[in-house]
Design a protein that fits this description.
Largest sheet: 6 strands, parallel
Strand order of the largest sheet: 5-2-1-6-7-8
Helix content: 25-40%
Number of strands: 8
Length: 198
């Protein structure tokens, strides 16, 4: 099996930490790993499989020599995904940026793995609640075509990433101290979804 040159964009955020956790748990074959983030968190250090890596600021040349780039979400995907593809990387994007793009396959491996063959350098994945739902619905759909699904979701604070989790932790501390809680609204923290299969 080939060992890949792997990059993680957004390595210091909540989704980036999950990517790293999975790399630590699973035997994904990589020979080189590049951790990328914004200038705000560049320079910090993260440990992956017992080795310490310094996080680099993401720039236009960051994807040179990279085979697979995991994008941990956010608006930065729109800027850097085409650059990564042009550099020769296959981008697996966790953001909503390419989910509705007809040129980008939207993949849940347990549901439509064959669609990955249609990629042109970028592979998207659905929203987390959608992934869980379609995994349960696919066997039913195979038995009898589903005509229509209407779904409303009210997602956790983690949907807003690290900022949402930090705010939740702060609010818990305020509540425990019987203080008035200060609330901010982060995009993605509670996003209703409607999905129709016709």
């Amino acid at each position: 099996m080939k060992n890949y040159n792997l990059a993680i964009l957004g390595a210091t955020g909540a989704v980036g930490h999950e990517f790293i956790k999975l790399l630590n748990e699973r035997d994904f074959p990589f020979s080189n790993l590049k951790l990328l983030a914004s200038s705000r968190t560049a320079g910090s250090e993260l440990v992956v499989r017992g080795k310490t890596y310094k996080v680099e600021e993401c720039k236009a040349d960051s994807f040179n020599g990279i085979d697979v780039a995991l994008f941990a979400g956010g608006p930065i995907s729109k800027e850097f995904a085409p650059i990564a593809v042009k550099s020769g990387a296959v981008v697996i994007d966790n953001s909503s940026t390419f989910r509705m793009d007809p040129e980008v396959p939207l993949i849940v491996p347990e549901v439509n793995p064959q669609a990955i063959l249609k990629h042109k350098g970028i592979i998207a994945n659905p929203n987390c609640s959608t992934i869980i739902m379609v995994m349960a619905l696919k066997p039913l759909y195979d038995l009898s075509r589903i005509k229509r699904i209407i779904v409303s979701t009210y997602q956790a604070a983690s949907g807003a990433g690290k900022d949402g989790l930090d705010e939740l932790e702060r609010q818990i501390k305020e509540a425990a101290a019987d203080e008035e809680m200060q609330a901010n609204i982060f995009p993605g923290a509670a996003s209703p979804n409607i999905i129709l299969w016709l």
